[in-house]
Amino acid sequence: MTHPKSEETMGKDDIVNNRTSRRNFLKGLSIAAAAGSATLMTGCIPDVSNASSEELKLKWQEFFKKNYRLMTQEEKNATVNRLEKLAHLRDGLDVQISSQAPRDNVLYGYAFNITRCEGFMECVTACIKENNLDRKTDTQYIRVFEMEPGQLDPSTGNGKFYHEVPVENKFYMATQCFHCENAPCTKACPTKATWREPDGIVVVDYEWCIGCRYCQAACPYFGRRFNWGKPEIPKEEINTKQHYLGNRIRPKGKMEKCTFCVQRTREGKLPACVEACPTGARVFGNLLDPDSEIRFVLKHKKVFRMKEELGTDPKFWYFID
Amino acid sequence: MQSASRNGFGAFLYDVFRWNLQGGLGLQIYRLLLIAGMLAGLYAYSFQAQHGLAVTGMNDIVSWGLYISNFTFLVGVAAAAVMLILPAYVFHDPGFHRVVIIGEGVAVGALVMCLTFIMVDLGGPLQAWHLIPGIGLFNFPSSILAWDVLVLNGYLLLNALVPLYILYNHYHGRKADEKKYRPFVFLSIFWAFSIHMVTAFLYQGLPARPFWNNPLMGPRFLASAFAAGPALITLILAIIHNVTNYKIVRQVFNKLRLIIVVSAIINLIMLFSEIFKEFYFPTHHSISAVYLFFGLDGHDALVPWIWTSIGVNLFATLILAFNPGKNNPRILLPAAGMLFIAIWMEKGIGLIVPGLIPSPLGEVVDYLPSWVELCVTLGVFCLGLTVVTFLIRAALIIEDRYEQKH
C-alpha cells in the first residue's frame, strides 16, 4: 500500500504519465486473481487499488447519487463539483460542468435543407470535437448519406462514401437523434435514465443508465450510441466546457446520444453542427418563437419527416428549397 | 442417510448441502466439470468487466447478441415447467405428480440462467440496483423491460418457494398441506404464460424493428417453448431414470411426447405463416427476414444457421410425431435432443440477431460472438446445470425417503 502515498507527493504531470504503468499493474493484478471475484470489482470500479482516499470517497458518493431529475439544485451542484474534482484527480483535467436548466418558453426544432447539403461532413467533425466522442471506435452522432435521385429514405443511400464531393447527380441527407416528442427510447428505458426535457431535448443520465441497450433497440432512427469500452479522446482535444446531460466524458457501458449540444444551446448558442455547416443547410431554433428561422422554414417550405408513419413526432424536418 | 431424526430448517439445509457434496465418482467428475466451466466463465467475465462490452462481438448495430439470445430462449425453458404442473395439479395425473418437482427444479435453473444472462449483458452491472423498486427508479408500467424484471423474479419465487414448502414438510416426514400451496400452484400456471408473453412483448412492442413487431411473436414463443422445454425435461427424466433409483413410469414419457409433438407442429405452422408473410410479397419490412434466410449485400452469416435449425426441427418433429421406433427411447431421446437444439438455434440467435440487421438506416453487418461471450455463456450454462443438479438431487432424496415411509 505504498502507492497512494507516493502519488500524493507526485505532481499532476507525474500522475498523468504514471497512468500507463498503473494500467499495466492492474492488468497483471487481474490476471493473477482472475478466478476470484475480487477481479470483478477491480474491473467494474477501475483503479480501486491505487486510488487516493479522496478519489475513493468521491466515487463512493457518486455511486449512491440519485437520478438527475430527482436531485435538488444543491444536489446537482454537489455532483457537478464531485465530477469536476474527479476529472482533475484522475486525468488532470480542469473541466467546467454545467447543470443549466431548460430556458422558459423554448422548444427546440431542427430543419435540414436537402438541396443545400453537399456532403462535406464538416458537421460530423465539429460534432465529434464538441461532444467529446470516442475516437477509438469513431463514434458519430451524425450520419451523412449519399443519395441516388428518386429516393428520399436514407436507408437506401450510401453512408460510407470516401471521395470528392459533391458528386454530379447525387444529393446528401444527414441523420442524427430526431428528439421525438413521442420517443420510443424513453418509453423503453426500465430505469427512467433517459427522458425528454421541457425544451424538447432527449437526454440520458449517464450514471443512472444501466447499459441494457433496450433504448437502442427501440430507436427507429439509429440515434443512440453505446460506450462499448472506455471512450478515448486525446487530452489536448477534450472540450472542457461541458454539461451534465451533454458532452461530458461518458463512463464505459453507458448510452449516449445527440443532445442538440445542450451545453451550447442552453447558453443561447447554436449547436456545433449548425455552426460548422459551410453551405447553410442546417437550421436550428425555437419552435415557440414565431419570428425564428425554424418557424419560417416550417411555414414557407415543403417539409417532411422521416418515418412519419411511426407517430414518433420528431422535432427534425427535412426540406427542399 | 440416518439423519431423519434431526429437525428444523438448519438440519434441512445441512442435509441438502451434505447430499450435494457426497456422491459417486461419476457425479463428482460431473461436478468438477461444471465448476471448471463456471471458472472459465468467471475469468471471461472479469475480462469483460475490465475492458467493457467492447470485448464482445456486439456493436451499435447488433447491440444484442449471444447473451440476450440465450436469455430469450431460456425464458421459454423456464415456463415449460407448466407443462408438468398443469397435468399434475389440474388433471391429477399421478405419474406427473411424481415428476413435477423435477420440472420446477429445471424452471428455477433456467430462471437463474435468464437473470444471469441479463446481468452479464449490462454495461453497468453495478448500477443494477437502479432497477429495484423503491431504492431505484422503476419505469413501470411504461417499460416492458420493467415488466419483465417483475414477472421473471416473481416466477422464480413461485417456483422456488412452493417446492421448498413441500420438500421441507416431506423432509420432516409430514404431508404438505395442499390447501396452503394450491393457490400458488395455480398462480404459477398463469404466471408461466405471462413470462412468455411479456418477454415476447419486449421485442413485439418495438415498431423500430419490423422483424419483431409481429403479433405472432407471443403465441410462437409459447408454442416453441412448450416443445423445447418438455423435450429438455424428457431428457432430464431419462437421465434420472437411468442413473438414480428414482424410477419414472413409461406413461410420463409417452404423454410428454404428445405434448412436444402438438406444440412443435403448432410452432411449425406459425413459422410457415411468418415465412409466407415475409416472402409472398416482400416489402422493405421483410429485409431482416431476407438477411436471415438468404443473406443481404454479401452478408450471410446466419443463412446456414437458420436452415440447419429448420431442417433439424422438421426432422425431429416428424420422428416424434410418427414414432418409428414404437416408443423406443434410443430413437425418441435423440429426437427430443435435436428438437431442443433446433429451437435453441432459432429462438435464440435466429430471432434476436436478424431483428437488429440491417440497422434502421439500412447498414448490414454480420455478428459473430467473441471468445469472451462464448466462455461467459458456457459459464452461465454450467451455473444453471449446477443449480438444477443441486435442487433435483436434494428433492429426489427427500421424495424417495418420504415415499418409502408412507
Radius of gyration of chain A: 22 Å
Question: How far is it from the N-terminal to the C-terminal residue of chain A, by CA?
Answer: 67 Å
Number of helices of chain B: 14
What is the C-alpha radius of gyration of chain B, as a whole number of Å? 22 Å
Identify low-pLDDT runs of chain B.
Answer: none
What is the strand content of chain A?
5-15%
The residue-averaged pLDDT of chain B reads 94
**Spatial arrangement of strands, main beta sheet of chain A:** 10-2-12-11
Question: Unreliable stretches of chain A, pLDDT < 50, 5 or more residues?
Answer: 1-44
How would a crystallographer describe the biggest sheet of chain B? none
Q: Quote the distance from N terminus to C terminus of chain B.
A: 17 Å
Shape of chain A: globular
Number of strands of chain A: 12
Helices of chain A, by number, come to 12
What is the helix fraction of residues of chain B, given as a range? over 70%
Find the biggest chain interface: A-B, 61 and 56 residues
In N-to-C order, the SSE pattern of chain B is: HHHHHHHHHHHHHH
* Helix vs. strand class of chain A: alpha+beta
Fold and architecture overview:
The complex is a heterodimer of chains A (321) and B (406). Chain A is of the alpha+beta class and 321 residues long. Chain A has helices at 3-9, 12-17, 19-32, 37-44, 53-63, 73-91, 122-130, 184-188, 214-218, 262-265, 272-276, 293-300; strands at residues 96-98, 108-113, 143-147, 171-175, 194-196, 202-204, 224-226, 241-243, 255-257, 282-286, 302-304, 316-320. In chain A, the strands form five sheets. A four-stranded mixed β-sheet of chain A has the order 10-2-12-11. A two-stranded parallel ribbon of chain A has the order 1-8. A two-stranded antiparallel ribbon of chain A has the order 3-4. In chain A, helix 3 (19-32) packs antiparallel against helix 4 (37-44) and helix 5 (53-63) packs antiparallel against helix 6 (73-91). With 406 residues, chain B is mainly alpha-helical. The mean pLDDT of chain B is 94. Chain B has 14 helices and no strands. Chain B is globular. Chain B starts with 7 loop residues before the first helix and ends with a helix. The longest helix of chain B has 35 residues, at 371-405. In chain B, helix 5 packs antiparallel against helix 14 and helix 9 (250-280) crosses helix 11 (303-322).
